[in-house]
Amino acid sequence: MASTLYGVNAPEAVKLWRKKLAREAIKATSIQKFIGEADESLIQVFDETSKGAGDRITVQLRSQMQGLGVQGDGTLEGNEESLQTYTDNLFVDQLRTATRSAGKMSEQRIPWSHREEAMMGLKDWWAARLDNWFFNQICGYTAVSDTRLTGLQAPIAPDSAHLILSGAVANDQSLTNTNIFTLSLIDQAVLQAKTLSPVIRPVKINGGSFYVMFLHPTQVYSLRTNTSTGQWLDIQKAAMTGDGSANNPILTGALGVYNNVILHESYRVSSGVNSSTGVGVANTRRAVLCGAQSAAIGFGQGYGFDDFSWNEELFDYSNQLGVEAGVIGGLKKLRFNSADFGTIVVSTYSAASDSTASNGNPI
After folding, report:
1. Is 358 helix (H, G, I), strand (E, B) or coil?
2. Which of 20, 114, 172, 353 is the 20 to 30 A CA-CA neighbour of 316?
3. Global confidence as pTM
4. Residue 213 and residue 306 share a domain
């Protein structure tokens, strides 16, 4: 009986595995549900570099016209208002990783396929890496200088208009155990988002308008253990009910909704940054309120959410199998006119610290 066999580096096998890796890796991230092509998406996809050559995507913002206009028979000619536009640049670069078996005898000792295990290991690595890109960018975690952890471009600290420090302290290192996360900080962030110029636009969900906020588990702990009136209980009262919104993927896994802010927990929310030394402040965390176009993501030609690279090589006279996976892409927080566009960082004291704080968030 004839059978079909796809060997190492067979074109059909490579295509199949690279698509499978890309889909599984994106599915495993915590940010997948926030990515979309519309300008109402929290993370907007820009595809210019996936369609042609280049390593930079120029994102343009046109600010709202502010003129009063001309009334009655007043002369309009010569009194036209100029359009104000600003740009930001998203860069793409290549990032690769690989795994390699010790040899056929080593593989003989285990009851699973090295190729399958390579797939699972690479999927987990890429899912964690994409999440790291997003959170180090939106948190403005400048303590990390290795751009392999920050979207393949340097993170930028939040500007003063898009930063809230609990207790109105001067900087992250001044936060103390009295400056924990409370619901009033969400109210303050929402007010700021609505009154900034330009305003931070909410994300559209089932016809409604919502912001999304990411909190570190220690900040969630502060909320849960706060016994003051109208704290965690208010979130539960406002949790998704029978309005159908709970079916939206953005609400899947959410802690709840408060003041039209969907709350999500992530241990990758970064620590604060010492304004003097530039290193991470271990006992602080930076929650982030996000609106539409908080971040941008793009890929190079031949790459995308359905297509990472997948290459297999045999070494040592075909005794060892190596598998490489990579992508040309990039992710960054959007900024226009030297100001953050869709994010507000809320820094608070962290009820507990962990060993990852000095390096941003866990790899």
Report:
1. helix
2. 20
3. 0.88
4. no
